[in-house]
Amino acid sequence: MSIRPARTRTPALIRAVVVAVLVLAFVIPWTYAHIAYSWPWKEKTEGDACTGKYYVTQYDKERTISLGTLSDGRTVYMGSTGEVSMGREIASFGLSVSTDTDRSAPLGQAKGLHRGDSATIEGVGTFTLKEAHSDIVWFTPNPGKALFCFNPDPTFTLNNFAQQGH
Question: How many CA atoms lie within 13 A of 114 on its CB side?
């Protein structure tokens, strides 16, 4: 009678299970993030959400844009973020002013605007969210970009970078 050692498949099975768990740990959140935030199955809105004369957007999330000048000569800066969350386009923006003595004082803000929502900042004008986009997302939503339609207040001097809307 010969005694043979039992074949051990346990290490190979453990490796296979570990690899499968790691693959699933990456694939499931990646798929969810792309469906929930990046794919173009956004909310359906009829017509153009833009009601402003100009388009304004912040192309570089790290820096604010110089939007224009108030009637008292202070420069207005704008920062914004946008995202697509569960198919809804959502954005926020903030305005600050700068003078020779005051580098950055808050002027106004709007948070959680949905596509087509408007916010008016006295002395500057009315901002309407035209569209929002998420940045590339892996496991969590990242702030992206937003495009606003802008109707300046008659006393506000807009910088010449803004694109004419309609």
Answer: 8
Instruction: Count H helices and E strands in the chain, helices first.
Output: 1, 10
Helices of type H across the chain: 10-33
**Quick one: which of 116, 50, 109, 100 has its CA closest to 78?**
109
Residues 6+ apart with CB under 8 A from 165: 50, 52, 53, 54, 55, 149, 150
Global pTM reads: 0.66
19-32 tens-digit pLDDT: 888 888 877 776 66
Q: Please say whether the dihedral angle defined by the alpha carbons of residues 51, 163, 129 and 84, taken in this order, is positive or negative.
A: positive
Q: What is the pLDDT of residues 41-89, one digit of tens each?
A: 555 555 566 766 788 877 766 677 888 889 888 888 888 888 777 677 8
Scanning the structure block, which residue is given the tokens 């506000």? 156
